[in-house]
Amino acid sequence: MIEKLESIKNEALESINECMDEATLNNVKSKYIGKKSVFNEIMSEMSKLSQEEKREVGSKSNEVRNEITNMLELKLKSIKDEALNKKLENDKIDITLPSKKRRIGSRHPLTIVREQIEDLFISMGYDVVSGPEVESDLYCFEMLNLPKGHPARDAQDSFYITDEMLLRTHTSPVQVRSMLANAEKKPFKLICPGKTYRRDDDDATHSHQFSQIEGLVVGENISLSDLKGTLELFAKKMFGSGREIRFRSSYFPFTEPSYEVDVSCFKCDQKGCNICKGTGWIEILGCGMVHPNVLEGCGFDHKKYQGFAFGVGIERVASLKYGVTNMRDYFTNDYRFLKNFDRKEM
Ligand code: PHE
Q1: CA 219 – CA 186 distance, rounded (Å)
Q2: Distance from the CA of 252 to the center of ligand 1, in angstroms?
Q3: Alpha-carbon distance 57 to 39, whole Å?
Q4: What pTM did the predictor assign?
Q5: 331 C-alpha to center of ligand 1: Å?
Q6: Which protein residue's CA is at the shortest distance from atom 7 of ligand 1?
Q7: Any residues with Cβ below 6 Å from ligand 1, and which?
Q8: Which strand (E) or helix (H) includes residue 166?
């Protein structure tokens, strides 16, 4: 029996040694030390032995069992270690590898300028509104005091979709929409940024699609000095605190009087340079006091209410601020152009 135990031990140790994974090891384990293990057979035969032999076989059998249990534990640990090492080897990360550079997108210069202008006017209590780009002739021209056949329509060569509908040539129709929508005819201040379209041939300084910001204030006792003060703030915010503005008489059918506004040249401080073409002044926008016909047409009593309006070209402001000389750059989205506006505080 002692020999039998010895051979069970050798056999067990050999099978344990040969195990390559946990599942086979578990089979071996139940064969040798499980409920139906080979030791049970020995136990049943023990009754036939003498007291002396019982003691001997009992202690040998314990010894063999312990040895097998220890071996099983050691083997299990080594299988687990090996699996872990394999996993670590496979999942290895080379932390010395240089990382891939990710380009962070930048805001478009027209967006930067539009948001700066919006922020300024929001801080002065203006609402920001929008209007449709496909507009009716009625709102785009007629109600802005530009009846059919008016010569000033020629200055805004338009993309007509039908006889009555066109791509808006300016943001001024939003003036009409806002005044009509104002049911109680209460005073208000708003700006409207948006895209506009004219039948221009595209070149370095023209684009058939561009963007404007319209400003409109309607209220009691609104005068030209309010307009001038507002635009002065605008010029200082966009072009630097030392800037001055001047009004030049002009003509728009929807304002009376009408002006074109120049800002003192920020490049040469009015000494004369290529940007201001030697004059010291740069034209930036059109404006005026809302024409009584426009106010009345939209239901505002022009004896009680006055208003001022202005229209700024966003591309023009951006080109002046950032020295962009080719208008096409705004629309071709060439990365080499756009990356100049990378996340910098412009
Ligand atoms: N709508 C005019 C234009 O596009 C600009 C303007 C707006 C002028 C408001 C006066 C008042 O040329």
Answers
A1: 7
A2: 7
A3: 11
A4: 0.72
A5: 23
A6: 311
A7: 170, 172, 214, 252, 255, 286-288, 309-311
A8: strand 165-167
The token pair that represents 233 in the structure block:
């703030």
Atom of ligand 1 nearest to the CA of 212: 4
Burial of 219 (0-12, 13-18, 19+ CB in 10 A): middle
Q: Which residue has the tokens 């404007």?
A: 212
Q: Whose CA is nearest to atom 4 of ligand 1?
A: 170
Q: Determine the atom of ligand 1 nearest the C-alpha atom of 170.
A: 4
Q: Locate the ligand 1 atom nearest the alpha carbon of residue 171 and give its number.
A: 1
pLDDT in tens, the chain (346 residues): 888 888 888 988 898 999 988 889 888 888 888 777 777 777 778 888 888 888 888 888 888 889 999 999 999 999 999 999 999 999 988 889 888 888 778 899 999 999 999 999 999 999 999 999 999 999 999 999 999 999 888 777 899 999 999 999 999 999 999 999 999 999 999 999 999 999 999 998 899 999 999 999 999 999 999 999 999 999 999 999 999 999 999 999 999 999 999 999 988 888 999 889 999 999 999 999 999 999 999 999 999 999 999 999 999 999 999 989 999 999 999 989 998 886 654 4
